[in-house]
Amino acid sequence: MKTIRRIPRRTALAALATIPLGCALPAAAQGFPDKPITFVVPFAAGTATDQIARALANSVTAESKQAVVIDNRAGASGFIASQQVAKAPADGYTVLITTNTTHAANEHLFKKLPYDPVKDFAPIAGLGKGGQIMVVNMNFPAKSVGEFIALAKKEPGKYSFGSGSSSSRMAGELLQQMADIKLLHVPYKSNTLAVTDLLGGQINMMITDTATGLPQVKAGKLRALGVSGAKRSPLAPDVPTIAEAAVPGYEMGYWFAAYAPAKTPPAVVKRLNELLVHAARSEAARTAFYEQTGTEVFTTTPEELAKFQADESQKWGRIVKAAGIEAE
Description:
alpha/beta, 10-stranded mixed beta sheet, 12 helices, 10 strands, 19% strand
């Protein structure tokens, strides 16, 4: 029988002290990140999602000392970007900065998705919540939500609204449902493209994210009729809510969140959560994006985001069903 030699407590503690602190972390997280990270954005440059991605990227770079590359993969309601991230290596270096479009609404708007919004991704963190603004061309005769609704009721189906995201589309669909009007929906790859056609008079109205629509209002190129939130935007206090203007109970918004490919090591997800939450709460991001767009800082743990996403999916499913939209 072998004799077990006992090591003096002081000797053991001294030996432990020589082990680098990094060894206490799982191997996958040690030194992460040690190369550039790519933020994949499912919408075009200039959209609110693009803006928040760039604002957060600057703060993540400052803290991690690694560059963050923005990769805009617009089109197909976020299919392209989502599919790209779902198939990327699960190492934490490819992150989807997205919205409820890809991870709550699409599954109810399309019969078949090229990605699974739950199984193909590892939730990282919630990033923000925002409101929308209802805008028309300056030459359009309606100067209020009430006047717009009156025109639409007088000639059902004559007037159009554009959308480049599910949030924008659902805002228009909900308006039709609650105001009992019929509009022609015109889809776009992004809200910025829809705004371009609105400026040119090709469409009559859209309810877009404040970050995209408000600058055009302030420049005198579009007319704001109302905001979609429960209360007025601090960036446009003179613009009434759609609810107070003409449609009691109307409310619509959107959210931003970050996801990694499924099977990304939990320790890496945790580190990405720390980087992104810190970035969202940073002074730099606040002044560069959140204050400029009226977006609320909304941060979560990965577990909280998973539950939030599940709840939101159910909510969006109810909106789609109530609007009578058939999956494409």
